[in-house]
């Protein structure tokens, strides 16, 4: 329970525990500025943890003497933030908190106190404050004045680096951090560790560090991603302080902003300007590599790269003039591309370059994801396009052309035609025999034979003229309708046969993930990125495909394996669209690969950034405008045209990798819009001729054998 004892202007707060308490980080003690109602003040004390140890700190606060002694249970109600006192790590061994001794202002620091009060009241309006002071400043007039400001605040007595872990770094709204340090080494050490314990959007003011130490701070992992760092340095002249700010992308080191003389700043320039809307021509490194259709290289005849183009490249180029920066394209070392996680937890490729701060942006059809913890090293802008992950498979071989003569009609139609032909012979024979008894049937006795009747029926089906016309009107009527029937059949057959001879027919093939899982095909990929995604999929067929995953680095080798029918390749729908739009041949060329109809994942495509990049919020706003304007689709179409143009320019200088790939996945079917009938198209005709030769020879041998027996 709590006990307050009045003692000559001192307020002593004693925490009595009935049993031993576990040792944890001390919670904050909140005291209101108005202590007229002691009961209300104590009831409104809020702690972060239930059990804690608190030792007597060196914080000396002047308060009003209490007029009574009372006891009260620990309250859980939150008090409106007025003053938070966080004790250091070395003071967490006893159960006593003493607050109330008077601070003695240091005369030599009165100028600093006045300057900081003016600074905070000007630049930190409506901001929460974190005041960090070491032993050299904790009892100074500067801290004394700052803690009495009406801002919501936290005060930390810094003894060693671990004390900074108790700072509340995640607070909504405007945040200001004031460091008063005689020894800035703990801050410099903290700035290179625990990257998540930092407010990258906060405003920092550091007092007590030298200019070299401030520059070292801006070069740390946290400092180089913090937009607003201000250093206050005593100039050596009495009462004068110099105010420096970090340059971020504008330059290196610290830049002088203003100075404090005679109780006022010499200029009204803000030390916290917007440093991301105008980068003042800064050179930003953009890491990428050639990956169709996102980033492409326009190559010259000698193989050198003339310039980069493509959807992702144009997005970055559109950002450059808006934010006034210069692009420097770089590639990942050793062909690492997007990067893989190493055994020691580090990353290579794009993720590694962004995580180490060696690149400012990245483009290469980057999917927004957090797979394998890559979001700890790489962040993303807002999405500017979407894509779908599908599976590329070989187009099934066409059906044999010798089957073409039978394809214009279905099996049921052919059976119906056969039945009609079989019935035509007997009907003609019966009508001819019925006419024998009639005088007007003279001369038609030959049709009485069933063989002759079938011969006449075949002539009608093949539209051959009859050797004689029947005299009976019933026979003429029947032959007339049979002729119309045969004409319709022949025209329909001839027209449809032309289509089947000129159009390649292919079987349906694999269209679903289940069918692919049941097949023996392997799963090829240029990296292990999507394999890890498949292993985490709730779809059992995708997890099964991941077990047959094979990494093949060279795209040409992957396409060769697909064409041979040995596996499938994880590919994006946009890549297939690019492929079909950049073929040099006409649309009559048949592409040897296709997409499995059932795809499995949608992804948002974005620009890669280092984690906690100060550019993100500004870039997101403009990228959203680009997406809404429809420019991304336009840049896609332009990249198709440029790719075809570059292919034509290089066509006579030997085959490039893309040309080789195109030669693998396409088959020539003639030039121009007309397709002449080749031997492959008309092979069925020669099969019929060959069959007639063989059948005639067999019949001839049969006749010879029969004649000898006679």
Automatic annotation (TrEMBL):
InterPro entries in the cross-refs: Glu/Gly-bd, Insect_Ionotropic_Sensory_Rcpt, Iontro_rcpt_C
Annotated organism of origin: Homarus americanus (American lobster)
Biological processes annotated in GO: detection of stimulus involved in sensory perception
TM ranges: 414-436, 475-493, 685-706
Ionotropic glutamate receptor C-terminal domain location: 411-691
Molecular function in Gene Ontology: ligand-gated monoatomic ion channel activity
Annotated protein name in UniProt: Glutamate receptor ionotropic, kainate 2-like 13
Bilayer topology annotation: Multi-pass membrane protein
Domain (Ionotropic glutamate receptor L-glutamate and glycine-binding): residue spans on this chain: 284-394
Compartment annotation: Cell membrane
Keywords of this entry: Cell membrane, Glycoprotein, Ion channel, Ion transport, Ligand-gated ion channel, Membrane, Receptor, Signal, Transmembrane, Transmembrane helix, Transport
Primary gene name: Grik2-L13
Residues of the signal peptide: 1-16
This protein's GO CC annotations: plasma membrane
Protein family: Belongs to the glutamate-gated ion channel (TC 1.A.10.1) family.
Pfam entry (one): Lig_chan-Glu_bd
Chief location bin: membrane
């Amino acid at each position: 329970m709590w006990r307050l004892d009045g003692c000559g202007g001192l307020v002593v707060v004693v925490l009595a525990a009935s049993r031993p308490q576990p040792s944890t980080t001390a919670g904050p003690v909140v005291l209101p500025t108005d202590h007229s109602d002691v009961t209300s003040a104590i009831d409104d004390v809020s702690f972060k943890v239930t059990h804690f140890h608190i030792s007597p700190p060196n914080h000396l606060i002047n308060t009003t003497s209490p007029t009574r002694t009372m006891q009260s249970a620990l309250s859980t109600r939150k008090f409106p933030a007025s003053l938070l006192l966080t004790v250091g790590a070395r003071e967490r061994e006893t159960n006593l908190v003493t607050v109330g001794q008077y601070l003695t202002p240091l005369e030599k620091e009165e100028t600093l106190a006045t300057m900081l009060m003016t600074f905070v009241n000007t630049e930190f309006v409506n901001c929460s404050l974190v005041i960090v002071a070491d032993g050299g400043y904790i009892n100074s007039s500067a801290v004394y004045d700052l803690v009495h400001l009406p801002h919501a605040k936290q005060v930390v007595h810094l003894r060693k680096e671990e004390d900074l872990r108790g700072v509340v770094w995640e607070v909504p709204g405007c945040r200001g951090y004031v460091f008063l340090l005689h020894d800035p080494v703990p801050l410099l050490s903290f700035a290179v560790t625990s990257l998540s314990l930092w407010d990258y959007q906060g405003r920092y003011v550091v007092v007590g560090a030298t200019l070299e130490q401030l520059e070292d701070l801006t070069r740390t992992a946290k400092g180089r991603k913090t937009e607003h760092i201000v250093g206050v340095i005593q100039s050596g002249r009495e009462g004068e302080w110099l105010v420096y700010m970090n340059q971020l992308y504008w330059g290196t080191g610290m830049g002088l902003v203003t100075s404090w003389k005679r109780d006022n700043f010499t200029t009204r320039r803000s030390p916290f300007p917007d440093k991301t809307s105008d980068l003042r021509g800064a050179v930003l490194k953009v890491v990428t590599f050639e990956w169709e259709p996102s980033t492409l290289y326009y190559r010259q005849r000698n193989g050198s790269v003339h310039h980069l183009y493509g959807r992702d490249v144009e997005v970055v180029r559109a950002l450059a003039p808006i934010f006034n920066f210069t692009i420097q394209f770089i590639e990942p070392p050793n062909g690492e591309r997007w990067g893989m996680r190493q055994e020691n937890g580090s990353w290579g490729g794009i993720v590694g370059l962004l995580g180490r701060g060696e690149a400012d942006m990245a483009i290469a059809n980057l999917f927004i994801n957090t797979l394998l913890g890559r979001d700890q090293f790489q962040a993303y802008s807002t999405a500017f396009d979407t894509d779908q992950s599908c599976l590329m498979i070989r187009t099934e071989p066409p059906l044999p052309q010798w089957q073409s003569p039978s394809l214009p009609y279905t099996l049921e139609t052919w059976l119906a035609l056969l039945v009609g032909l079989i019935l035509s012979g007997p009907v003609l024979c019966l009508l001819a025999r019925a006419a024998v008894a009639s005088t007007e049937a003279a001369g038609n006795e030959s049709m009485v034979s069933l063989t002759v009747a079938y011969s006449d029926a075949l002539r009608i089906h093949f539209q051959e003229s009859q050797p004689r016309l029947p005299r009976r009107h019933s026979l003429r009527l029947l032959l007339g309708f049979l002729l119309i029937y045969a004409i319709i059949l022949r025209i329909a057959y001839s027209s449809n046969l032309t289509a089947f001879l000129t159009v390649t027919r292919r079987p349906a093939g694999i269209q679903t993930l289940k069918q692919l899982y049941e097949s023996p095909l392997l799963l090829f990929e240029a990296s292990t990125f999507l394999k890890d995604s498949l292993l985490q999929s709730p779809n059992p067929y995708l997890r099964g495909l991941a077990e047959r995953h094979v990494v093949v680095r060279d795209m040409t080798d992957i396409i060769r394996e697909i064409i041979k029918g040995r596996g499938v390749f994880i590919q994006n729908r946009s890549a297939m669209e690019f492929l079909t739009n950049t073929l040099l041949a006409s649309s009559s060329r048949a592409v040897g690969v296709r997409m499995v109809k059932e795809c499995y994942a949608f992804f948002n495509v974005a620009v890669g950034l280092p984690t906690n990049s100060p550019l993100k919020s500004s870039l997101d706003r403009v990228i959203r405008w680009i997406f809404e304007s429809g420019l991304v689709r336009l840049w896609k179409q332009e990249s198709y045209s440029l790719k075809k143009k570059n292919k034509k320019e290089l066509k006579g200088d030997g085959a490039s990798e893309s040309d080789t790939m195109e030669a693998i996945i396409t088959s020539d079917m003639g030039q121009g819009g007309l397709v002449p009938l080749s031997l492959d198209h008309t092979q069925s005709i020669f099969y019929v001729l060959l069959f007639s030769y063989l059948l005639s020879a067999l019949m001839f041998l049969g006749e010879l054998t029969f004649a000898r027996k006679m």
